[in-house]
UniProtKB/TrEMBL annotation:
One of its GO terms (molecular function) is sphingomyelin phosphodiesterase activity. GO terms for cellular component: membrane. The chain crosses the membrane at residues 319-338, 350-373. Pfam families: Exo_endo_phos (PF03372). This is sphingomyelin phosphodiesterase.
Length: 391
């Protein structure tokens, strides 16, 4: 008798920052998310952007009667934001934090401070061992000038490699999360092809009028105005993917969940909507999954080209930042000259010199250390992809 497995994934948009940076209706939405998860017969839940550990503990307390097992992946300065709740025992966990995750000086983005990555929980479901992965990749921000594309490609490759190399002994594997990429994106193809995964939304046997968009939807009260002006129906950024292992996993249903809060009709659970998938697990297995399909060479070549563009940009940025160090030293020396020859400016020059020194220190750190780390990480990613191309 096949075993039914119900999975849901949601980006909660739970920024625990002071006003006005805090996400809208934060406390109410966390409460309602917990209530919604209790009302439905989910077996495994993946949540992203639960940045505050207190929010995880709050959900853990609310869900403990149904979801007796849970895990929060601690990583980075602000945390990974990723957590998993399960009806079934979690027997082991592992996390890989992505090597590249944005830039330190892009404080307004915040990705660099987050410990984004992919978390693995091995779940024991009766006689089956299921590898359940939850992931959150770097945001796109500007599709017309995607400065973070080399980073997101490196993350996609690390994600695919992590899934591929940790799933050999699993009966089945499921990957869920906010990938921040659309299906026509190079990073999406890299994940699907390299890890030999199936996209539940594409494979769904059920008919559905919804286009599958999970962010920027017109029916979401938190959708930015710039998306509503485009007159489109949003982007599909959140996914559930799967693959058989030693046992057989079949998709029975996939649909959008957790959009509007039922008793708060003007409020959504998040700025994203959830993705739900229902699977059946059985011991009968007539598919060959041990031999993973080769990633198309053209795809790998495009990834290598993009990573090389990133390496070139790093070299250019290093020259700019180190040049700024020299210029700032000149300005700092000029403040001493001004102090000696202009009366009444000592306090002003002292403050200016302090600020210039801080700026120079950051430029020196970023030019010598930050960009060197990025350069080496991009080279490592490019070399690893090149190895697959040479197979």
């Amino acid at each position: 008798m096949p075993l039914v497995l119900r999975v849901v994934s949601l980006n909660c948009w739970a920024l625990p920052l002071p006003w006005p940076f805090r996400s809208n209706d934060h406390s109410l939405r966390i409460k309602k998310i917990g209530e919604a998860l209790l009302l439905n017969e989910y077996d495994i839940v993946a949540l992203e952007e639960v940045w505050g550990e207190h929010d995880f503990l709050r959900l853990q307390e609310a869900l403990k009667k149904i979801f007796g097992y849970s895990y929060y992946f601690h990583s980075g300065f602000t945390g990974s934001g990723i957590c998993v709740f399960s009806r079934y025992p979690i027997v082991s966990t592992l996390m890989h934090r992505f090597t590249l995750n944005g830039f330190a000086h892009h404080i307004h983005r915040g990705d660099w401070f987050a410990g984004k990555g992919v978390g693995l929980v091995e779940i024991e479901i009766e006689q089956y061992r299921v590898n359940f992965y939850a992931a959150h990749l770097h945001a796109e921000y500007n599709p017309n000038k995607d400065l973070y594309l080399p980073h997101r490609l490196a993350q996609a490759f690390e994600l695919a490699q992590f899934v591929k190399h940790t799933s050999y002994s699993a009966d089945a594997l499921i990957l869920a999360g906010d990938f921040n990429i659309e299906p026509d994106n190079l990073a999406y193809q890299l994940i699907v092809q390299n890890a030999n995964l199936r996209d539940a939304w594409i494979q769904k046997p059920n008919s559905c009028d919804d286009c599958g968009a999970t962010f920027g939807r017109l029916d979401n009260c938190y959708t930015p105005q710039r998306f509503k002006n485009k007159k489109n129906y949003g982007k599909r950024l959140d996914y559930i993917m799967y693959r058989s292992g030693r046992s057989k996993i079949e998709l029975k249903l996939c649909e959008i969940r957790m959009n509007r809060i039922h008793d708060q009709k003007s409020i959504n659970y998040s700025d994203h909507v959830g993705v739900y998938a229902e699977f059946s697990l059985s011991e009968q297995h007539d598919e060959i999954t041990k031999g993973l399909s080769l990633t198309p060479p053209n795809l790998l070549k495009k990834v290598i080209e993009t990573q090389q563009e990133g390496i070139t940009r790093v070299s250019r940025d290093r020259f700019i930042f180190l040049s700024l160090v020299v210029i700032l030293i000149g300005f700092i020396l000029a403040t001493f000259f001004a102090e000696q020859h202009i009366s009444g400016v000592k306090t002003a020059t002292l403050i200016l010199r302090f600020l210039l020194t801080l700026l120079m220190g950051f430029c020196l750190w970023h030019g010598l250390i930050g960009l060197t780390l990025e350069h080496k990480a991009l080279k490592a990613s490019k070399a690893s992809v090149s190895m697959l191309l040479n197979e």
